[in-house]
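> example.struct
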């Protein structure tokens, strides 16, 4: 098959869009700004979902489901949150259509079916969930509430890109309620760590853990913890956020509890989420000019077996060998596919599975049967090796673990060589334009300076790293005092 992918070096954005479509991950739909996630792409999302869901349950959370629609008055209850999402809201105003008598076959909004109160299609669920928690929490015995939901949300984005920014997307959102401030902060930090562990150990994506500035913070939060990743084009991508909400939503929705001493107090809240944007991060961190490169932990198919034959007799003999391999792989939990299609030639299959990022390919031909060997190809390095049939399943099992580790280390090396310390605004601009990546620089802590730098360079403060050294310095832009370096980058 012909891939005809644009080279990353020529046009990274075009390469990404082409790859998502050609690798059968997703496509644009008939609805502006919305995507269709295709079976192969959804299979990757399901693996992400399963692992995250396991991690959430291990940390004591339970899944629930809340309505898609939020009454406008309820949405407005927490002012900062409402203002923060107002420009992205889709609103339902009517509940019925009727035939347009002037245009046969056409429908129009029935003016008599106007809703008494308009409904917001959820851009996030804090409002509906906290209004529910009011009924669930009466006493300290009801706390903590540790709830997660898997859902879709709608944010009416004007510029959309498959997975990275769509008007509707899939995500999970955790919403927890606690008796004390300290407990809620521990929860916020814990969930940021869960996301970091998932990104690094499962997606093979190194991340930097940090805090958002007040300007970049989630609307309605007192603090936003984040994990930031670096893509191959030197742009940053926010891979997950965890918010300490203080008592903001509890006060907005009057969620109080009786303490052990019998006093009435507002609960403390958190919310945290990751979305199908992680699919974009996965594609952009590891893939190459030949197509997807998938970490084995996320690959729907970890090993593909391709037969090479001319006669039916050869095909039958190879199939016996392949079926035995499939059974052995399945026994040890490796997902495997025997590509026994007779409608496509081996060269087509090689190109297809390479494009789809299958980590390991095994080719079996008549000579392999004679010699007791298999040809084994790695997708990440595009290298091939002839391996003895004896013990090959165990060798490939270990190879999959090696590929997972190598992909992480490759991404880590790129990330670490693209964090540049600068001490002047000229050097700052030079790195952004020529080297790209994260720029570590002193900032005076003001929103004015942050906004001015963004205006002049399109770079934002991605995070205040949690492990940063406390060192006094001079802000690269204003010349005022700085308490430490922060990470700037251009971002998705």
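> example.seq
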């Amino acid at each position: 098959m012909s891939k005809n992918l644009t080279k990353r070096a020529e046009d990274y954005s075009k390469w990404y869009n082409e790859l998502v479509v050609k690798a059968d991950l997703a496509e644009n739909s008939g609805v502006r700004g919305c995507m269709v996630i295709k079976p192969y792409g959804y299979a990757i999302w399901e693996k992400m979902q399963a692992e995250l869901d396991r991690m959430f349950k291990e940390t004591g959370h339970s899944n629930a489901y809340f309505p898609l629609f939020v009454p406008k008055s309820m949405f407005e209850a927490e002012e900062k949150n409402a203002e923060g999402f107002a420009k992205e809201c889709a609103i339902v105003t009517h509940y019925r259509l009727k035939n347009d008598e002037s245009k046969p076959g056409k429908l129009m909004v029935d003016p008599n079916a106007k809703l008494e109160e308009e409904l917001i299609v959820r851009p996030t669920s804090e409002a509906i969930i906290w209004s529910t928690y009011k009924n669930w929490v009466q006493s300290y015995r009801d706390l903590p509430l540790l709830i997660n939901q898997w859902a879709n949300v709608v944010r009416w984005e004007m510029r959309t890109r498959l997975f990275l920014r769509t008007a509707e997307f899939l995500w999970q959102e955790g919403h927890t309620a606690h008796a004390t401030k300290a407990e809620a902060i521990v929860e916020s930090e814990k969930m940021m760590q869960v996301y970091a562990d998932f990104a690094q150990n499962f997606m093979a994506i190194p991340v930097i853990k940090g805090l958002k500035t007040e300007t970049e913070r989630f609307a309605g939060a007192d603090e936003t913890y984040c994990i930031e990743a670096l893509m191959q084009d030197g742009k940053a991508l926010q891979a997950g956020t965890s918010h300490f909400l203080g008592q903001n939503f509890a006060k907005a929705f009057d969620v109080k509890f009786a303490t052990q001493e019998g006093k009435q107090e507002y609960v403390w809240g958190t919310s945290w989420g990751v979305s199908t944007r992680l699919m974009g991060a996965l594609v952009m961190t590891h893939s190459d000019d030949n197509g997807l490169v998938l970490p084995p932990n996320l690959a729907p198919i970890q090993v593909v077996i391709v037969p090479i034959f001319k006669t039916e007799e050869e095909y039958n003999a190879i199939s016996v060998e392949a079926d035995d391999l499939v059974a052995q792989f399945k026994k040890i939990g490796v997902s495997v596919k025997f590509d026994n299609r007779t409608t496509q030639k081996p060269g087509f299959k090689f190109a297809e599975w390479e494009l789809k990022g299958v980590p390991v390919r095994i080719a079996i031909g008549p000579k392999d049967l004679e010699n007791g060997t298999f040809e084994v190809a790695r997708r990440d390095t595009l290298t091939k090796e002839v391996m003895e049939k004896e013990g090959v399943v165990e060798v490939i099992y270990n190879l999959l673990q090696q590929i997972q580790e190598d992909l992480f280390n490759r991404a880590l090396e790129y990330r670490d060589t693209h964090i540049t310390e600068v001490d002047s605004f000229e050097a700052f601009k030079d790195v952004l334009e020529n080297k790209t990546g994260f720029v570590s620089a002193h900032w005076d802590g003001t929103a004015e300076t942050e906004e001015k730098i963004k205006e002049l360079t399109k770079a934002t403060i991605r995070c205040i790293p949690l492990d940063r050294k406390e060192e006094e310095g001079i802000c690269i832009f204003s010349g005022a005092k700085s308490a430490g370096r922060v990470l700037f980058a251009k971002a998705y």
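> remarks
The chain has 14 helices and 27 strands.
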